[in-house]
Amino acid sequence: MSNTVVVADLLLPKGHVDFNKKYLEALSANADTRVVPGLLGERRFSYEFFTPGKLLKPCEGKIAGRIQTKRNAAIASHYWKKVPGSSLVLLSSDPLMLLFSPHLRGNVLMVHHKSVDELCMSSIKRACFSLYKNRIHHAVGEPFIGRCLIDKLGVTPDRVHVCPHPIVEAAYLDDKSCSLATHDYDAVGLCGSNDSEFVRAIASFEERTSFFAKNNCRVYLKGDLFFNDGYLRISSERLDEAEYASMLRYAKISLSPVGLSFQNRVSGALLDGLSYRCVVVATPFKMAKCYSSYYSDLVYCEDDVERFCRRILNLLSERNLIVSREVSFAELFSAHSIEYIADTLSDALEAME
Known about the structure:
Layout: E1 4-8, H1 17-28, E2 32-35, E3 48-49, H2 62-80, E4 87-90, E5 108-111, H3 115-121, H4 123-130, E6 137-140, H5 143-151, E7 160-162, E8 187-189, H6 196-209, H7 211-214, E9 219-222, E10 227-228, E11 232-235, H8 241-250, E12 253-256, H9 268-275, E13 279-282, H10 286-294, E14 299-301, H11 305-316, H12 326-335, H13 338-351
Parallel strand pairs: 1-2, 1-4, 2-3, 4-5, 5-6, 6-7, 8-9, 8-12, 9-11, 12-13, 13-14
Antiparallel strand pairs: 10-11
Helix pairs in contact: 1-13, 3-4
């Protein structure tokens, strides 16, 4: 394995700061990790930075963003060349713009997020990707994403590496059965990718039947409409980090009514719910279906609105809902621990030699 790893992020998505920090922690466990300036939008981090110079900037707007991605690729290449024999890890990147960065080839590990779905949906991006896909290596968060890269996008299997999405046990409540404050909910669905039609159908079901009101069940869903009958609340408002964490901390159930177009990618919101020891009720998008087979008592899939709502109520009626699932939560946290991810990244970097 290369003794030194240079790490950059060509897109700097705002929601990836925690992911980047945890990935860096895993990388640094087995390699000398060098961070390109600006990677985290700050300097206060425990890993070694290069001498301050040009900073990477977030990409905003379609055209301007791609131009900035190309510039960020040049900056990353500049720092990578300063460490001969090292590997380069790209924590996020644009598969289209990497075609125009021929200097980023060889011992390069591209971490995929939504890019695999984008490649599947765009013939132009697939054509560009095909010109360099087997000249770099690819890290994916789940085996089913790796299968898509191999079977549908033609990446050779030895260039695909499964490195789980990092999660850390959050500061959950020891006793989630405590009485709720006025701003807390039994079940929350905070994902920005919630399916609009499914959420609207839940609102219509509640409006017709008062299902949650009759059963004294308080539910919060993120959606593109406003609905509030005192028990089901749907809102498009953006939650700050403290509000987001507080809702999951008190909730017993996390909801992921995500559209089926959300296919070959990891759902951070689903993992966030599990990290707070919430049981998950989801629509049957690919990751939810996989997790319902891995952890059948932690993730439940329903494709019908009424069954989805009744599943929430049935779970809430269980005694010791969370405590009875401690073994499964322990297995989940072990499979996504920094130590385990460090081992998978070590294997990936060794395979790149």
